[in-house]
Amino acid sequence: MKIIVGKNLEEMSTIAAQHVLSYMYQDRRVNLAITGGTTPEKMYEILVPQVKNQTCFSNVHYYNFDEIPYKKEDREGVTISDLRRYYLDPANIAEENIHALNQYNYKEQDQRIKNDGGLDMIILGIGADGHYCGNLPGTTSFGDMTTRVECDQRLKDRILPEFNYEEEHVPDYYITMGPKSIMMAKNLVLIASGTKKAEIIQRILQGKVEESIPASILTMHPNLTIILDEEAASLINYK
Amino acid sequence: MKIIVGKNLEEMSTIAAQHVLSYMYQDRRVNLAITGGTTPEKMYEILVPQVKNQTCFSNVHYYNFDEIPYKKEDREGVTISDLRRYYLDPANIAEENIHALNQYNYKEQDQRIKNDGGLDMIILGIGADGHYCGNLPGTTSFGDMTTRVECDQRLKDRILPEFNYEEEHVPDYYITMGPKSIMMAKNLVLIASGTKKAEIIQRILQGKVEESIPASILTMHPNLTIILDEEAASLINYK
Amino acid sequence: MKIIVGKNLEEMSTIAAQHVLSYMYQDRRVNLAITGGTTPEKMYEILVPQVKNQTCFSNVHYYNFDEIPYKKEDREGVTISDLRRYYLDPANIAEENIHALNQYNYKEQDQRIKNDGGLDMIILGIGADGHYCGNLPGTTSFGDMTTRVECDQRLKDRILPEFNYEEEHVPDYYITMGPKSIMMAKNLVLIASGTKKAEIIQRILQGKVEESIPASILTMHPNLTIILDEEAASLINYK
Amino acid sequence: MKIIVGKNLEEMSTIAAQHVLSYMYQDRRVNLAITGGTTPEKMYEILVPQVKNQTCFSNVHYYNFDEIPYKKEDREGVTISDLRRYYLDPANIAEENIHALNQYNYKEQDQRIKNDGGLDMIILGIGADGHYCGNLPGTTSFGDMTTRVECDQRLKDRILPEFNYEEEHVPDYYITMGPKSIMMAKNLVLIASGTKKAEIIQRILQGKVEESIPASILTMHPNLTIILDEEAASLINYK
User: Fold this and answer.
1) Which ipTM did the prediction report?
2) Distance from A96 to chain D by nearest Cα, in Å?
């Protein structure tokens, strides 16, 4: 495990962008699973001008690792829409390099990734409750591969903000790569920013590995890099 | 994860020996942690004539991943003694390529391995109770690195056979690389033979990942190979 | 560079077979280019029973690196026919895992291999004149990728034995991966046996790197393993 | 081979800096051989603030690949002095991570690098005459490992500017890793900037591989990345 700490969100995002780039420079097909959410927005802002229209990155393929479908409308889900908005569209990534996971193809996701040569890297955020991807406490077990999670009312309330609080869009289930799917990647990069993430970072680094803290399992991966800003790192000793 | 099944113990041991050799052929320092116990005896028998006095393998370094010290006598522990008897001595491995873990240096084991470049491969057996190395049910947690395990009477009874049932030798503690230490290796190879291992193999492949079945965590490693004979594979579908 | 010396052809072939197997054990698509000729016959004999009908090797794909087409008949060329006879057929390799290079597709060979993820390993023989694959002295330059070599009378005389001395079959050209194509592989394994190879082995290890000795360029590859018997190694110092 | 083209020296230097960083992020000992000269000055300017005092890069070790000793004074040579001035000093690299090659230890350089685990990456400039490191046309052969090159008057005239045209400092010989030493690295990165490099870039990509153009051999490496600005790329087709 390697821990890298930038002074602030800006510096953390620069370091994270460099990590993503470092995989893209390989001279062979590269498969990356990238994360939505708010933490990586700055990172994508830094990446876009460096990636846009660069033919030398035509070897890079993108995957999303979870998806929340819209309930009523037949449109792409929340995650891939976010990824398109913040990165894939402004960076002008070719459609053939985008491999969307959704409610129709999730059962083939693990085999598809294996056939494609495996994921070289997954870049992940972490929630204050220890969730990552769609692996929220109480939803998946460590041994799960890509799966469909049924949403009870508690979960529905939780993802409501993703739909601008319009309840009619909130689905009865979502899709996520499970812990075992995630652990099969060759490299994991976990990013976190801000004081509200300091406790969970401390927890996964110093506490027990258990399913109630889903991200605790990530510390068992042989190639994990954790990129933080100083606030998120404020409760750990990293020097 | 890759599962390879040989017809019987002989064929399984041949395949396992080839796996060990496949790491040794690298043209750089190679660090292997190898296992004692009865399962690999045949494997070492196959390896010894191929390795003995071959200068082309001077790049290979050996580590043990657990140790049971003798209580009364100041001699090397049970594990390294087994490894010497079955492999290191007959294969004439140079002493400078042997890195014994013991009760005196176990606190430095994880850092030492890291400084040496990490373990390229650990070859492990599995117990019918799901233990591997010294990670017996109830002794270590998933997040443990190399550690000392105190032996209560139950544990003492259990390791008594290792000392030819001479109670005065049974120690109050033993040393083991913990689950997290093991998971940091680049590659894991798990070997099992015989019908008495069929149930635990089925269990770790199909059941939950939980500390009461220590070896269940191994299935979360991105580079795990399981080598079985047909009896050990009799309850799983591997074709 | 790593040099491994077996006592005789039998031991050399066993070591070579283990090298081939060591690549096959990966848990991902593996691309191997394998060699015809007489040197590897024993190696294939050892490999066949270990590979035949093993579902765990369905990830392994095979390529030939040169081809001599038949002039008059529309049948597969000399190299792939040899590979089928000595290995692919007896090992029962699925047709979809065999990627034949021939006179019709050779212009796409380099791009095809790149798209498939690159060659993990090429196992090569060497001629007493320093040739390897179809790179005979005077036919290709170091910088050549896969190419078609026109045969003058000297070359025709030379490949005549491949056609049982039936001149009407000897073609006006053959196909070969050039030196640069070969050097792009991740790993190279060179095998040689017998006293008649001792001089060329000494030459490529101690002499100049130049096009008149085509195999001299192979010593510039960062991952080259040379597997010899004692006779082929008799003029070098390898201990 | 991968070719990456930045608009100008600034963008090329940014891309090159990211390449260097991408190796440094590994969680294990990393060995880099870095280049002096004028081409990388901007790159080091970009690197320094990102590397300075970052404990997460304490795993990175630095090597120089050539050295011109001072004739009269007993001080460090031209290359390592340049590297210290432009990068090692301002980035505050620990002395124990700096492995200087010089006239006293050059015979051990290749074995030392091998013992250290090999070079992960060499970043190289190229001269308009096709030289790289101290491999000037007519000085070394492709098969040379690290060596001492005697300076005739022509060579002395050539390196005179390195000594501010003070002839009394110009030595009778210099040290360089030879072509074979360089090719043994796991990855090569070649950087070039400006129209005066356009012809040699075209030459090594399209012309013969021959010793009179030393850098032509680099195109035979399986992991070569070429980073150019648009001027240096103006005679090649890279889109």
Assistant:
1) 0.94
2) 18
